[in-house]
Amino acid sequence: MIALTLRLGDGGSPEGPKKHTLLPLDGITILTVIPKWMPTISRWPSFFQTFSDGGYNMVHFAPINQRGISDSPYSIYDQLSLSDDLFDEPALPEQEKEDQMKDMLVSIHQTNKILSITDIVWNHTACNSSWLLHHPEAGYNLKTAPHLRPAYELDEAIIQFSEDIHAVHGLPDTISSEADLSAVLAVFSSKILPSLNLWQFFVVDAKASVDAFRVQWKAAKTGPTSVAPPYDPDRYKSVNLGSLPLKERAQVLARDALEPGKTHDRFSKTINVSTAMAFVHKLCLDLGVTDIDKQVEQYAALVDEVNLPLYQETDADIAVIKEQIGNRARYLRIAEHGPRLGPVTRVNPIVDTYFTRLPVNDITKGRDAGELALANNGWIWNADPLVNFAAEGSKAYFRREVIPWGDCVKLRYGDGPQDSPWLWKHQIEYTSKMARLFHGLRIDNCHSTPIHVAQYLLDVARSVNPDLYVFAELFTGSEEKDILFVSKLGINSLIREAMNAWDPHELSRQVHRQGGSPVGSLALPAEYFPLDMVGHSLNSTFYEPCSADTEIVVELRGSTPHNLFMDCTHDNETPHQKRTAEDTLPNAAVVAMTMSAIGSVKGYDEIVPELLNVVKESRKYRLPDSFEGIIPAKSILNSLHTKMAREGYCEIHVNQEHDFISIHRVHPVTHDGYLLIARCAFRGNRSDQVHSPIILRNQCVHVLESATLASLANLGSAVHLEFSTYLSHITHAFVEQIGDSGDIQTAITVDASQFKPGSIVLYRTWVLWYSSHASRWPPGLYEAVKGLSDVDINLALYRTGPEEAELTGGDSVYDIPGFGPLPYCGLQGIVSALVPSARNNDMGASLFSNIRQGPWLANYTIGRLEKLAVQFPGLWALCDWIKTRLRLVSSLSAAFVPKYFAIVIMAAYQGVKFRALTLSTDTLALRHPEDKRASSLVKFGESCVMTAFQLYGSVQSTGLLPKAYPLHLPGGGVFPRDPCLAAGLPHFATNHMRCWGRDIFIALRGLFLIPGHFPAARAHIIAFGSTLRHGLIPNLLDQGIRPRYNARDATWFWFRSVRDYCRYSPEGYAFLGAPVARRFIPKRRYTSGPDFCVAPDHDAAAEVPDADTYIDPSDPRVYQSVSTIAELCQEVLDRHARGIRFREWNAGTQLDHAMRSEGFDISIDADLAVPGGTGLVRGGNRWNCGTWMDKMGDSDKAGIKGVPATPRDGSPVEIIGLIKGVLHWIASDVSVKGKMWWKWTGVHIRNPAGGSDRHVSYADWDKMLVNSFEACFYIPIDPAEDRNHLIDRKELINRRGIYKDVYGSSLAYMDYQLRPNMCVAMVAAPELFNPDHARTALSLIKSTLAGPLGIKTLDPTDWAYRGVYDNANDSSDPTVAHGFNYHQGPEWVWVNAFFLRAYIHFFTRAPGHDKDRVDSELMWVQRQLMAHKQHINDTAVNPFAGLPELTNEGGAKCHGSCPTQAWSSAVMLEVTEDLGKHRRC
């Protein structure tokens, strides 16, 4: 369905309304009027005032165009001309008519709040449309559709027989009995039909075919052998035709040689002689037939057998023709319910004619006679709407299956405008005109309109009026086909007809099918969220009312098509005709209570007794009295219908007993409702039994309307049926309240003797406890959450079992019987289980069963918050808010508890989430001020932001600091519970495995800086910076107690975080001067003071005691030395430039149970020689793994213990990119913006020849990297270019057009493996890369490595690729044992995000990108994010509500992965930031 906005005018003048009221689709109340029965346009306002008074907000006009010869509004003479009889002045110019109509419809909209709709008729035109004379090709004639020729000849014979029926055949020309009809049909069947020889159109002329074959066969057989035969003698050599029965031989020949005639004349079917000769050649070889005449006889037998099924099919067609003509003639001539036409003549034949014969005149005289015979339109019982019954291949016209409209010519569109150019142009103009005038279109006969035609023309209409309301009648007989039409055409509503119900049970079933949720459902529409119930006003700053420009992001779910439920249409017989006149009222009331758009036809409310014929009726409408018919009741019902739709009464209960139907519409939050009891008045279906009492517990009722419709019989003649009706407003239904104030039952009983068929009563209902002023709600939700800190939010929403246990002395997550443990102890844990069940309204879910059975989950939720609030007082307000409401909920009936428990929990959850998203800025941080919508991208970004609160919190077992920190540290320093960021949950929740330097600083920009959590970012940068030792940041922090320095990349991610903090935070570059108390004693060269980076570092005797070595946290020298952030950064650069050598402290199995001794030796160097230096930093060795690909083998069985899977020693590409990024930043930005704190221009490296250290500026180091990078890392596509690059081992190249993963690895093949790490370098330092080379490499990564959520860590064609990670694998396979393939194929999410960021840069911003493809490239990235958006928000799939660490190949779940990982969400958040920048460019 196409989204649209319907607005009703509200006051104002015709020049422009003051404001508009939104009209939901379910609030539509539509009235059909026939324009030719309306007075001229100047008198319309008074009619529309009565329509408005009747509660109608939409009027549907039958076609308003010039009508054809039949005077039917649906037989349009000129689509581009409005009917003259609508206007006061005759023969107005068309533009003036259009202007007058437009002015009137605008006035009606603004004054009466009524939208105007009209029919659009695309299927046919009037048979006398003058333009057909000029364009007969617009229809199906014998030239454009020669397959209709047999049908035309049959039609001609019927007309001639009708003319001759008495004079020639001696039959009565007036058929008045079944005997008359039988006599006529007998003559037609025995004489007329056989004489037509219709079979000749469908079979092969056997004699002519055999004669032609004989001539060519004999010529081929008796001619010179040197001449090749006119057929392929080997065509059937592999088939033993002689073994086949004659029938199967004929089937093979027919399949290969039968050719349908394109002219569709008699005997136009033929058999291809060349193919037939090849067939007979092989057949006779198989049979041993050598005589030529015998061979021809074989062919003759085959032709007869080929014709046999064709004759049989034609015989069956003739039988259908006889049946169809008989049935149609019976209906037209003698049936009681038929028209009983008069004498049979040529003009009035025995059955309808199927073709319009255009006259021969000056316009048409040059045309072939076949062009002037045009097929009439019509319809077929139970036809497939996807099949064009006039197209080639259909025999519907020949078999007389079409019930034709003799006044309409069916239009032929073909496959597109190229097939009928004039018709398409004409219909485009017609459609555009109607879209200019009206607010909506009703597609007439949508089911027989070719879908591609309707799609095209609706696109035209919507280009004129984007908010076009489109509805249609669809008689497809299949819900699947209805959905097909709706989805292809964007239909907003399908017409459904209450008059099709044959008894009260069927009518109640139809009401059920119109939609709505069961009363008490959990399926709450977002727009009806219980704001006032949960304790704050609609004017709260917490939830702002939606403005006209606000667009709400909603979940799109599959559903049945939306319906427009009509109590009666202009095609339906009235209740008096099909049921009884009294049923007019209950039928209308039942329809008004449905959850759909509703409608009626002008005359229904006035109780016009019979269906008015839109063709023959010529009388005009009159203005009814306000008390006439059911108008007073209908006004109330229509107004209530719109009110219920606007205000969200989306729950419904329908009950049918005997001839009673009761319908209760209920608001899902307030539980206010409207209850209808209606007694139907179907003819012959009346019962003396009464509706059982209706019991409403703790609810009150008030009568809004009651009425009984009765007829005062004064029937007169059958032709002039007249009767009067009256409404009685006595209720005849009685209300009694039983019980005390704590448990009141309202019982409604019906007096069957007085509440007669045709009666209704309508009540307003409301729930006592909800409306009681004694129920005083505590302070609102906004006040309850506004004081929450980031740590409070973590406690309220999240906390895994291990985290909870540390703070509470052993508590853990709630375990639901039949479901299992919740993912979190906080509200997110409940919500993760709640949402999937609530989405499907699964009231039998284990969670809801547990809630109904007892208050255990409520008590758990309240109890944990009370316990935590003692330690974290910021939680008390939220705790009290939830406690008060859940205590109230627990007092309800068990059936209601799940719903209200869900409302309270969801309200609290959304409130805390809103506080989280606005914590730093008081606004939704990701929503740019210019954005007017929360796009799916923004919502995804906000979901990623929430993972910061999942992962950032306090635990007892670890933190950022080993002891009290002596300096001020906003966001940290609250020893021993200073909050810290976990790398992932639940595997890295507590103890020394919680904080990883690499993970934290990859994640820091996304999780802390983009959302504005600057204190937390600052605390982590300083805490890790304080532990700087050996020039490195630790990989595992371990609270600073025993940090481990085995990562070569963590330092550079930390350095990048310093850069990002300076760029993002309000503190800016002043952060470079921030003091950092150092956990370990720095070397003299790096001690703050005048000798910083000047003192020599080669004199051990002059060195500070215990410098650069481990000291216990209890040592008083801890935190005695203080450096600035700038000094720490300079130390990192200087030490890498001068070289780093050390052995890890506490090396051995006590530090790493699997690592070999050599692996503990750390060495790092930089190639800064001048001239010729590459600037590359290299390090590591074969036995350690110093980058993020850090899997160490530990399987003795597989022989890989102590063997790194991916050592990546040398110069890993991402480290080079990170170094280049910080060098560029220092040389360009820091030298200007941070010069107050940054005092150095470069580094000093040792002179290998001895003597003074040599200075290398940052700019020179930066330049070295630029000059060397492409040569060292790029593997060109063309091998001839290898000479320009450092390609040492060509035989190891598996892919070209990529960048090496490492340069100078001890395992040479690793240099040449395709991995995604180059993407990190592309983001960190895009200036390193030749943009064309980068695009080539990224394209290859896109096609080979990109997965649904993550990106493959190794080329699938690589010998080492293993895409499924299983850490529990205890096999002897060295490639996978104990998860050895952790980074050898499994798909990691955070690296995928870097790939997407690199892709965005190089394909939409970098020099040389294709500007014409920017939008499509960005769209591709958006499509890639669809899986991430779904994953992070679908708690049925991922109850931890985050993005995983990794997946197995193809996006398959990896059970060894953390389901929510810091760097995964963080870097994806950076992707959303990049896309957001593009959107605002």
Radius of gyration: 42 Å
- The average pLDDT score comes to 89
Strand order of the largest sheet: 3-4-7-14-15-16-17-18
Shape: globular
Taking pLDDT < 50 over at least 5 consecutive residues as the criterion, the unreliable ranges are 11-18, 525-556, 714-726, 769-778, 922-934
SS content category? alpha+beta
Largest sheet report: 8 strands, parallel, barrel
Helical amount among residues, as a percent range?
25-40%
Span from first to last CA?
A: 32 Å
* Total of DSSP H or I helical runs spanning 4+ residues: 37
Proportion of residues in β-strands: 5-15%
Number of strands: 47
Label this structure with key terms.
single chain, 1481 residues, alpha+beta, six-stranded antiparallel β-sheet, 47 strands
Concise account of the structure shown:
With 1481 residues, the chain is α+β, with helices and mostly antiparallel strands.
Report on the architecture of this protein.
Strand 5 (65-67) and strand 6 form a beta hairpin. Helix content is 35%, strand content 14%. It has an eight-stranded parallel beta barrel, surrounded by four helices. The longest helix is centred in the N-terminal third of the chain and has 42 residues, at 292-333. It is an alpha+beta fold and 1481 residues long. The protein has 37 helices and 47 strands.
Task: Map the helices and strands.
Elements lengths: L5 E5 L8 E5 L5 E5 L10 H10 L4 E4 L3 E3 L8 E7 L11 H19 L2 E6 L3 E3 L4 H4 L14 H16 L13 H19 L9 H17 L23 H12 E2 L10 E2 L1 H15 L4 H42 L21 E3 L15 E7 L23 E8 L10 H17 L2 E4 L7 H14 L4 E4 L6 H11 L3 E5 L6 H10 L49 E4 L8 H4 L5 H9 L4 E5 L29 H17 L3 E7 L2 E7 L6 E7 L14 E4 L1 E15 L9 E6 L4 E8 L2 E8 L8 E9 H4 L9 H5 L4 H8 L3 H8 L6 E2 L3 E2 L5 H13 L6 H8 L2 H16 L4 H14 L7 H21 L18 H16 E2 L26 E2 L2 E2 L11 H13 L4 H13 L23 H15 L10 E3 L44 E3 H14 L1 E4 L17 E6 L10 E3 L31 E2 H21 L8 E4 L8 E4 H16 E2 L22 E2 L2 E2 L14 H7 L6 H14 L6 E2 L34 E2 H16 ...
Parallel strand pairs: 3-4, 3-18, 4-7, 7-14, 14-15, 15-16, 16-17, 17-18
Antiparallel strand pairs: 1-2, 5-6, 8-13, 9-10, 11-12, 12-13, 19-20, 20-21, 21-27, 22-26, 23-24, 23-27, 25-26, 28-29, 30-31, 32-47, 33-34, 35-36, 36-37, 38-43, 39-40, 41-42, 44-45, 45-46
Helix pairs in contact: 4-5, 5-9, 6-9, 7-9, 8-9, 10-11, 15-16, 19-25, 21-25, 23-24, 24-25, 26-36, 26-37, 27-28, 27-29, 27-37, 28-29, 29-31, 31-32, 31-33, 33-35, 34-35, 35-36, 35-37
